[in-house]
Write a structure and sequence with these properties.
Blueprint: H1 2-7, H2 9-27, H3 45-48, H4 55-62, H5 66-84, H6 86-97, H7 101-112, H8 119-130, H9 136-143, H10 155-183, H11 187-195, H12 200-224, H13 232-238, H14 244-247, H15 250-260, H16 264-291
Helix pairs in contact: 4-16, 5-10, 6-10, 7-10, 10-12, 12-16, 15-16
């Protein structure tokens, strides 16, 4: 046992930073969950603040805006889940099928670069191009007698804009994982398929896609755990008073109530509610995946 421990020391050192990250920034802050059941007073501190039980949860569920926030949050998450999630898989399959390697690497780099662009820059470019009055695209449309596009102020465009920007920015990052999975596929499988007369489509259907199934199911389950997290920064930058009806989600509501108005206990209750919903989704999806013969998360 001691010999095995000594041999594993380099591995223990390698995982130490990740372990410390989760301990300090994931597990240690969970002690603050108790705020959800108290009326927090900064002068008395967390432990001395009065206990109020489920008061904040009752306020949350009876809040007039609760169903609007829940609907918007789930709608944006669902759009991201079912429209954005398949795109990295599609790009990875297409890049894997490309026979001109320099072209595949160029495309991979091009779709990968936007991940490093800040949401502030992405939304800023959108504003410059599509601002109602002085946006470059709207000016061009006006010159040719076309109607202006109220892309940033019309609530009907918000969800489409949100999803398209997410796809453009994060597709390349998501593709890396699926390309790594495809790199582990034994080339002899394709060679055997060719010998059996399988064409490119048959090879992709019977070899490439099954190779991605396990990792795709795993990532899908993990993403369900974030179904109540729509991405504060992205939504907040796109949000304005005109599209608030469809853009206001729990994350932006927590910012207004918690950071701006100091309702720390109430917003902690919202955070706990979001976490519980995410946990339920993960457990249910994991159980369903196992019923269909997949490995799941655990």
């Amino acid at each position: 046992m001691q010999k095995a421990i000594k041999q594993g020391i380099p591995l223990y050192i390698m995982i130490l930073p990740g372990l410390l990250y989760f301990l300090l920034f994931r597990y240690a802050p969970m002690g603050g969950i108790i705020l959800a059941f108290k009326d927090f007073d900064p002068f008395e501190g967390i432990w001395a603040s009065p206990w109020v039980g489920f008061k904040h949860f009752h306020v949350l569920f009876t809040e007039p805006d609760f169903w609007r926030l829940l609907t918007n949050t789930l709608m944006l998450s669902a759009l991201n889940l079912f429209l954005y999630f398949p795109v990295p898989i599609l790009i990875a399959v297409l890049l894997n099928e490309a026979r001109v390697k320099w072209f595949a690497k160029t495309v991979q780099t091009v779709v990968y670069i936007p991940h490093f662009v800040s949401w502030v820059v992405v939304v800023g470019i959108t504003v410059v191009l599509f601002a109602s009055q002085d946006g470059g695209v709207n000016k061009l449309l006006a010159e040719y007698g076309w109607s202006r596009i109220d892309l940033l102020t019309d609530p009907g465009y918000f969800r489409a804009l949100y999803v398209l920007q997410s796809i453009w920015k994060e597709t390349g990052w998501g593709t890396i994982i699926f390309l790594a999975a495809l790199a582990s596929v034994d080339p002899t499988l394709y060679e055997a398929a060719v010998m059996d007369g399988a064409g490119r489509w048959r090879q992709m259907w019977h070899i490439t896609l099954p190779a991605l199934r396990t990792i795709a199911v795993l990532l899908f389950i993990l993403r369900l755990g974030q179904v109540m997290d729509s991405g504060f920064e992205h939504i907040y930058l796109l949000q304005n008073s005109l599209n608030l009806a469809v853009s206001d989600v729990f994350d932006t509501y927590v910012y207004r109530q918690g950071v701006l108005q100091g309702e720390y206990s109430f917003t902690t209750a919202i955070g706990l509610f979001k976490s519980i919903v995410g946990l339920i989704f993960v457990l249910a999806a994991n159980k369903l995946a196992k019923r269909f013969g997949e490995e799941g998360v655990y």
